[in-house]
Design a protein that fits this description.
By secondary structure, the chain is an alpha/beta fold. The strands form two sheets. The protein has a seven-stranded mixed sheet with strand order 3-2-1-4-5-9-8. Strands 6-7 form a two-stranded parallel sheet. α1 packs across α4 and α1 packs parallel to α10.
Length: 237
């Protein structure tokens, strides 16, 4: 039964772009939309971060920019933001280094530009993701969350994402978001350079979820709800 399942959610600790000083952090809807789906199904969830402790929120994710507002889920995000008990979970998260894989059935990597700076090269996070995958547990991510998959290697020495179908925030979306000059790399390019088969929606900022075995990825903020549904469906199978 899915009610007995438990999911680990990983969020960023980074609150500024390293070079240009823009504020960043967790894109809140990528947490709340996923959370809403699993909570409704009765699953339990824990939140962790690379360093543990405080999790900053990207201020633009609270403004609901026009491109994201088309999701029609503004009220759901605001409700969570105003829920003190929910938001208090982001004040003192556990470190990924302290997570016991055996306690969970799936892992979900949220996005926000902050993860570009503290997911890709975080060794404990990479080891944790590899453990999930090699123990036949679901590995999921949305938007910039696949940054956490970039350098994950399995026990055979191969990248986890090699020869896998997946998605993530596209370079065109980066350009439209006017962050192409500020990001440290193109997520789309880095994924393909490691042998992944990258797939994107025809229209930027529209829902797109790609599944390949235990790997479930969503392209952008609008895809978070659907990633949650895909994870739930897989856990229920």
């Amino acid at each position: 039964m899915t009610q007995s399942k438990k999911v680990l959610i990983v969020v960023t600790n980074t609150e500024e772009f390293e070079k240009v000083g823009y504020r960043t952090g967790l894109w809140l809807s990528e947490l709340t939309h996923f959370w809403d789906v699993l909570e409704k199904a009765g699953l339990s969830m824990d939140i962790a971060s690379p360093a543990g402790g405080y999790v900053p929120i990207d201020p633009e994710s609270l403004l609901m920019p026009e491109l994201i507002q088309m999701t029609g889920l503004k009220d759901a995000v605001n409700k969570r933001y105003e829920d003190r008990a929910f938001m208090d979970q982001l004040k003192n998260t556990r470190s990924v280094a302290d997570v016991d894989v055996d306690q969970y059935d799936a892992i979900y990597l949220t996005g926000g530009h902050g993860v570009m700076f503290d997911f890709a090269n975080n060794e404990p996070l990479g080891q944790l993701i590899a453990e999930f995958y090699e123990n036949n547990k679901i590995v999921s991510a949305v938007c910039h969350g696949p940054c956490g998959l970039l350098n994950v290697k399995l026990s055979n020495g191969n990248y986890l994402i090699k020869d896998k179908k997946l998605t993530g925030f596209s370079w065109r979306e980066e350009q439209l978001a006017k962050r192409d000059h500020a990001v440290p790399f193109s997520l789309q390019d880095e994924l393909t350079q490691r042998g992944a088969y990258y797939e994107k929606a025809l229209i930027p900022f529209t829902e797109n979820v790609v599944e390949d075995g235990l790997l479930i990825t969503g392209q952008n903020p609008k895809s978070a709800h659907a990633v949650g549904q895909a994870v739930l469906s897989r856990l229920d199978s």
